[in-house]
Amino acid sequence: MKLTDKIFDIVEPTVTALGYELYEVEYQKEFDNWVLTLYIDHPDGVSLDDCELVSNAVDPVLDAADPIEQAYYLSVSSLGIDRPLKTDKDYQRNIGKVMDVKLYAPLNGKKEFSGTLTAFDEATYTIELKSGSETIERKKTALIRPHIDF
Asked: Rounded to two decimals, what is the model's pTM?
């Protein structure tokens, strides 16, 4: 079992008990330090106070389980409003929303476009464009993420 999966299993009950969804666990080296990042979500959004609450709750759980041998920094973060879609959970969360899409190869002469995500399955997703619907293979997509108007 991967370390991040093990950590997910260790802290997920605590995060859920606080009313949040543990979305993803990352463990990576940043400069000279190891950083364990827990990504959380909540229907009402995630504030800095939410991240602090979760961090304070999972810290003793991680200390007791001691799944990581070396020293690390614990970070708790929201998913972010422009997080790329990777999993089925991401696609489900964004049904009906406008997405920015970048493809590896052109589709109808374009590699980049925006449209409303209307459906998905394990291999494809459907985007509603002004010109009609397009069903696109996930493996042909370099990036798909929520569109943000500034």
From this structure: 0.74
Reported in sequence order, the residue ranges of the chain that DSSP labels E, i.e. its strands, are: 21-30, 33-41, 73-78, 98-107, 110-120, 124-129, 132-137, 141-146
Task: State how far the Cα of 136 lies from the Cα of 68, in Å rounded to an integer.
Answer: 40
Question: Beta-carbon neighbour count of residue 38 at 10 Å?
Answer: 25
Region of 82 on the Ramachandran plot (φ > 0 left; ψ -120 to 50 alpha; else beta): alpha
How many beta carbons lie within 10 A of that of residue 54, not counting itself? 24
In Å, the largest CA–CA distance within the chain is 56
41: number of Cβ within 10 Å: 19
Question: Helix (H, G, I), strand (E, B), or coil: what is residue 26?
Answer: strand
One-letter identity of residue 5: D
Residue 142's nearest CA partner among 95, 107, 92 is 107
User: Is 140's pLDDT higher than 80?
Assistant: yes
User: What is the model's pLDDT at position 150?
Assistant: 77
